[in-house]
Amino acid sequence: MVLGRLFKIDKGVEKTRAGFFSRMSELFGRAKIDENLWDELEEILIASDVGVATTEQVMSNLRHRVEIGALTTPRDLRRGIQEELVDILDIAATDEPLIAGPLTVVLVVGVNGVGKTTTIAKLARLWREEGHSVVLAAADTFRAAAVDQLKIWADRSGVALVAHQPGADPGSVTFDAISAARARGADVVVVDTAGRLHTKINLMEELKKIRRVIDKQAVPRVKTLLVLDATTGQNGLMQAKSFAGTSGIDGVIVTKLDGTARGGVVFSIVKELQVPVLFVGTGEKLDDLAEFDPEVFVEALFQPASR
């Protein structure tokens, strides 16, 4: 990971760091580990949207390490909690490349408003700069504005776009995009999908249909990425479970991390879904997308807050 992307992750967690995690840092300056410290630590983790189940796991592991003498001071506890948080994120981590083989189709899912289309443009820009040939598929045909928006982003990103008229069959768009990619010798097709409310069965059925179209094309590598808005907290986690049950999820992209003080939701996402966070969105510009690294992310949370 290049230094520029590390810097963006650091900037992207400023609100979370300045809020709940700065309170946590104050605990580590105390003279001893006592019940008041444990209570405050638990409160901070839950308030930062780490989640109840994840918080209980972290607290249990830390208490055990204190009981066996592995952690003896609040300063030790700081190191201990960082290790526990990294371990949670590492559980689902993989070294497998996202883009590989003669052709990869990346199906991007998520509800409206999470920044899905913008994220697709950022991915296209990133992969193009890495030397990949990219084709975008405008399969969100239910919103007329979605196709126009993706065309603008495709032009800015310098990649090809396959689009039909608004209201067209999303499966047909996906089919044509795969055909175009093969004809051009492209490396990756990124499919933008509809993002209606996750509670509506028609959206989930459309996603299944698109996936069936892809599978019939004998594509050697297919990945489904879920885009989640960090500002929605635990509601976003509920959305994630719905999508996971319908289309399966290979990775998560967390957007708008720079706009919330509840960035601890990243730990809940990984703990509950057992899938890795691959990227985080840290702004609105095309290059405001950082490759996710668990150690870098946790370390950034515990840095002193900017003044």
Overview in brief:
The protein is of the alpha/beta class and 307 residues long.
Description:
The chain is of the alpha/beta class. It is 52% helix and 13% strand. The chain has twelve helices and eight strands. The chain has helices at 3-12, 14-27, 35-47, 52-67, 74-91, 116-129, 144-157, 170-184, 201-216, 234-247, 265-273, 294-301, and strands at residues 104-109, 134-138, 160-162, 188-192, 221-229, 251-255, 277-281, 289-291. It has an eight-stranded mixed beta sheet with strand order 3-2-4-1-5-6-7-8, with helices on both faces. Helix 6 runs parallel beside helix 7 (144-157). The longest helix has 18 residues, at 74-91. The radius of gyration is 21 Å and the shape is elongated. Mean pLDDT is 85; it is low at 1-7.
Q: Main sheet?
A: 8 strands, mixed
Silhouette: elongated
Radius of gyration: 21 Å
- Name the average pLDDT: 85
Compressed to H and E, one letter per element, the order equals: HHHHHEHEHEHEHEHEHEEH
Strand content: 5-15%
Strand order of the largest sheet: 3-2-4-1-5-6-7-8
Can you give the helix content as a percent range?
Answer: 40-55%
The class by helix and strand makeup works out as alpha/beta
How does the SSE layout of this entry go?
Layout: H1 3-12, H2 14-27, H3 35-47, H4 52-67, H5 74-91, E1 104-109, H6 116-129, E2 134-138, H7 144-157, E3 160-162, H8 170-184, E4 188-192, H9 201-216, E5 221-229, H10 234-247, E6 251-255, H11 265-273, E7 277-281, E8 289-291, H12 294-301
Parallel strand pairs: 1-4, 1-5, 2-3, 2-4, 5-6, 6-7
Antiparallel strand pairs: 7-8
